[in-house]
Design brief:
By secondary structure, this protein is of the alpha+beta class. It has two domains: 10-288, Jelly Rolls (Sandwich), CATH 2.60.120; 290-324. It is built from eight helices and 13 strands. Helix 7 (292-306) packs antiparallel against helix 8 (312-323).
């Protein structure tokens, strides 16, 4: 009897080895899938035309120049830049993802970078999770040669096999942090510190990603990764990460959710490939994001817009009632 764990990515299923043997994939694809299953990532050539990359970088430089501060990133620029959209919906990338997850990939967010992020180690699952779990991944593409000096990605092979640690595991009631400032503080003060302490306790081994222009890396939802320090002042590190969900799931934000008390912050997304709204689905039925926490978030945004018109103490009192 063959058992298929359809509500778990097959690369993370306890039945993976048997299913891989039974699959009709080519020997090359089997090796690719097996390596991803074991290590939580895969480096590959997405077949992008280098002239497309050069055009993309050139078109985005004026936008990067307008950003104050050192964090030179632009989110969801696919909406006005066709080159960025083409990278996100690359046929080779989507083919690889279909093989790895056996579901239709949904590109839902792009982030473009001019320099290395130097970001602390994290798992994407705290930002983007799904029900069923782990139907999410990131694909990072280098738009120039990446060296040890211009802030390469770092990652911890096999760390995707660790449990997913939610904000509750840090002793944080996530749904209390519906304001952007509070959510960011809770994440920075609790989550990233917890992850670093765990890495040290488990003696996980870090690797850095030094690849050539045009190469790419897929990482699974729970793979621990971040950004290395920039050792060459002023060095660029042009790149793009696209985040993908997969169809027939609920898509939510764990760092803003407390599922145990029915507070779940559902994502409201657009499929970059089709331009259509992404439907949150549970066993084939649509789940709408009008949960209590979603309504709270909408109310907070509205209050933030009108707050200059009223005394601060009145606005704060209304916010306290909304949050409950």
């Amino acid at each position: 009897m063959t058992i298929h764990a359809d509500n778990l990515p097959w690369t993370e299923s306890p039945f993976f080895e048997g299913e891989l043997q039974e699959s009709t994939l080519s020997a090359e694809d089997k090796a690719f899938v097996k390596d991803f299953s074991e290590n939580g990532y895969a480096v590959f050539d997405p077949g992008l035309d280098l002239s497309l990359i050069d055009s993309l970088v050139g078109s985005m430089k004026p936008h990067f120049a307008k950003i104050d501060g050192e964090d030179k990133r632009l989110q969801d620029s696919w909406a006005y830049n066709e080159c960025i959209r083409k990278v996100a919906v690359s046929d080779i990338v989507l083919h690889k993802l279909r093989i790895l997850y056996r579901r239709e990939p949904i590109p839902f967010q792009t982030l473009n970078f001019a320099v290395g992020t130097q970001q602390k180690t994290h798992s994407d699952m705290v930002h983007f999770n799904s029900i069923p779990h782990r139907f999410m991944c990131g694909v990072w593409v280098a738009f120039e040669d990446i060296t040890e000096n211009n802030g390469p990605l770092h990652y911890y092979p096999k760390s995707h096999k660790l449990p997913f640690y939610d904000m509750i595991d840090m002793g944080v009631k996530a749904s209390d942090n519906i304001s952007a400032k509070k959510a960011l503080m809770a994440y920075a003060e609790n989550y990233t510190s917890f992850i670093q302490e765990m890495i040290e306790a488990l003696k996980l081994k870090k690797q850095t990603l030094t690849i050539k222009k045009g190469q790419a890396m897929i990482w699974s939802a729970n793979l621990l990764h971040g950004g290395e320090m920039i050792h060459t002042p002023g060095a660029s590190r042009y790149s793009q990460v696209t985040h993908y969900y997969f169809d027939n799931c609920i898509y939510y934000v764990p760092r803003l959710s407390d599922i145990a008390i029915n507070k779940i912050y559902l994502n409201n997304l657009v499929n970059i490939r089709t331009g259509k709204k992404v439907v949150n689905s549970y066993f084939g039925k649509e789940v709408k994001p009008a949960t209590k926490i979603q309504l709270q978030q909408s109310a907070i945004r509205m209050l933030s817009k009108i707050s200059p018109l009223f005394p601060k103490e009145i606005v704060d009192r209304i916010k306290s009632v909304v949050v409950g």
